[in-house]
Specification:
Chain B: Keywords: ATP-binding, Nucleotide-binding, Transport. Chain B: GO terms for molecular function: ABC-type transporter activity; ATP binding; ATP hydrolysis activity. Chain B: This is Lipopolysaccharide transport system ATP-binding protein. Chain B: It holds the Pfam family ABC_tran. The complex is a heterodimer of chains A (256) and B (246). With 256 residues, chain A is mainly alpha-helical. Helices cover 77% and strands 0% of the residues of chain A. In chain A, α3 runs antiparallel to α9, α5 packs antiparallel against α6 and α8 crosses α9. Chain B has a domain of 64 residues. In chain B, 36% of the residues lie in helices and 28% in strands. Chain B is built from eight helices and nine strands. In chain B, the strands form two sheets. In chain B, strands 5-6-7-3-8-9 form a six-stranded mixed β-sheet, sandwiched between helices. Chain B has a three-stranded antiparallel β-sheet with strand order 2-1-4, covered by helices on one side. In chain B, α3 crosses α4. The radius of gyration of chain B is 19 Å and the shape is globular. Chains A and B meet through α1, α4 and α10 of A and β5 and α3 of B.
Chain lengths: 256, 246
């Protein structure tokens, strides 16, 4: 099976899984949009109503950060189970194991496209005027997607070797939630801390970039995006190497 | 998918040999505590060879290492020690009762995924689905999630999908032991067709009777080692005597 065949298979499996998940829930596909909106409402209640953020556009600020972040966090957390839950299919024959984390990323991304569409509609309804700069949004989404792929592969792989790492992964994503400027603005930090965070936490940079583009119609830092893209591609290449070397060992660990 | 065979090794292979295994060993290590590990040798120095077009039998009781051996032959696992060579075999298929499916997906979707895993293109795989649906006799259940299936229905689906694809080496694990009489008969007929043709087959069962019916040569595996090999009748006799003595 070559890489393109594996992509088709991952795509097919993801669509099947989405269909089956939707058929099990009463509100079915509506959940894709309801869930992120509920999260935004929850955060709004805590950080605006209870704590008072002091910024007029806080609900928009929250939405534009929380929605892409949810995509990221849910993808990484569910990737941790990707290989282990692939047990059934893995017993059939030898095939590239990267399909499993790919399916998770694909599944969450398909949902996310619908959510993003709603987000953009909500922005327009709120009075934000679409501009050509919004096209940068697609670029940021693409980089965000490529950043998730190797991380999802890593999360799935480490759990195969040490199951306990699942806890560490969910702790790490929670830490990321608090350190990526989700309910506070990275730009309000003092220069040193801001630089540190934007340099070493790609999610902090990406969330800020989403906001810059959609809320302020600004051009994102393209060079920085380029570095994240390059780093992601190198990591992706490395993860593929690990997966191909470890393929049969993964099967043994998961099946026995 | 198979490792390329060096020319020197190729010379070792008799022209009629399809699979050659020498001193295959597999050890599982399971973590029991922070530093504690439980080691278990599933296979110890297993050697055999299978001729092209032959139906080769493997018998042994539960937990003797049969499934591990099949998974190694299917290329799902890699052995820890020993040598395994294939000649003229590019595609291997495992047909097992507990053949894994994704419980949340329908029989139709699972069948499609299984075919695609065999390297069949999606378009062509879709064309094969109606035949599989018919052969499996699952009726309306074919579009229901596999988790709602009985074990008999699962094995019917597994068998129907498994015999569909073209393969150079067919690995069969206990498939004839479950299912109602009618389906069992149908499955046996299909298998016999393949077995009597050019197909190289490895047939694994805990039942000496079944192996005797289908294979001329066989091995008996007990606790991960080859306890007897050669003519099926002789091997089966030893196996049965051993089972009776337990």
């Amino acid at each position: 099976m070559n890489y393109f065949q594996s992509l088709t298979l991952a795509q097919t499996l993801a669509s099947m899984k989405l269909k089956s998940e939707a058929s099990r829930l009463v509100l079915s596909y509506l959940w894709w949009v309801i869930e992120p909106m509920l999260f935004v409402a929850m955060f709004y209640f805590v950080f605006e109503v209870l704590l008072g953020s002091g910024r007029g556009d806080f609900i928009v600020f929250l939405m534009v950060g929380k929605i892409p972040f949810l995509w990221f966090i849910k993808t990484i957390n569910s990737s941790a189970n990707a290989l282990i839950s692939g047990k059934g299919i893995m017993g059939q024959r030898d095939f590239p194991k990267h399909i499993f984390p790919y399916v998770v990323v694909e599944e969450n991304t398909q949902k996310q496209m619908v959510v993003f569409l709603f987000m953009v509609i909500a922005l327009i309804a709120k009075g934000y005027e679409p501009s050509f700069h919004w096209l940068y949004f697609l670029l940021i989404v693409a980089v965000n997607f490529l950043l998730m792929l190797p991380l999802a592969m890593l999360a799935a792989l480490v759990v195969v070797y040490v199951r306990d790492l699942r806890m560490v992964i969910s702790l790490a994503t929670t830490f990321l939630m608090f350190s990526s400027g989700l309910f506070w603005d990275v730009r309000s930090l003092e220069a040193g801390a801001q630089h540190l965070l934007l340099t070493y936490n790609p999610m902090a940079f990406l969330l800020d970039a989403y906001r810059q583009v959609l809320m302020f119609s600004a051009v994102p830092d393209i060079a920085h995006l380029g570095w994240i893209l390059l780093g992601s591609l190198v990591a992706l290449f490395f993860m593929h190497f690990l997966y191909s070397v470890q393929s049969k060992f993964i099967a043994r660990k998961v099946l026995s | 998918m198979n490792s390329p065979i060096s020319s020197a090794a190729q010379d070792n292979l008799n022209a009629s040999v399809a699979v050659f295994a020498e001193n295959l060993s597999v050890t599982y290590a399971t973590r029991t505590s922070l530093l504690g590990r439980f080691r278990h040798s599933a296979l110890k120095d297993i050697s055999f060879s299978i001729n092209k077009g032959e139906t080769f039998g493997v018998m042994g009781r539960n937990g003797c290492g049969k499934s591990t051996l099949l998974r190694i032959l299917a290329g799902i696992y890699k052995h820890d020690k020993g040598k395994l060579q294939f000649a003229g075999i590019n595609n291997r298929s495992l047909l097992a009762l507990g053949l894994g499916f994704d419980g949340e997906l329908s029989g139709r979707d699972n069948a499609l995924v299984s075919l695609m895993l065999q390297g069949i293109k999606k378009k062509e795989a879709k064309k094969l689905i109606p035949e599989i649906q018919e052969f499996s006799e699952l009726g309306d259940f074919f579009d229901q999630p596999v988790r709602t299936y009985s074990s008999g229905m699962r094995s019917r689906l597994g068998f129907s999908v498994g015999v569909k694809g073209e393969t150079d080496l067919l690995l069969i694990d206990e498939v004839l032991s479950v299912g109602d009489q009618h389906f069992k008969k149908k499955a046996e007929d299909v298998l016999l067709q393949r077995i009597n043709g050019e197909q190289t087959v490895v047939f694994v069962s805990h039942s000496a009777g079944q192996v005797k019916k289908l294979c001329k040569r066989a091995i008996w595996i007990e606790q991960g080692t080859v306890a007897a090999s050669g003519n099926t009748r002789r091997v089966a006799k030893k196996y049965q005597d051993f089972m009776d003595s337990l």
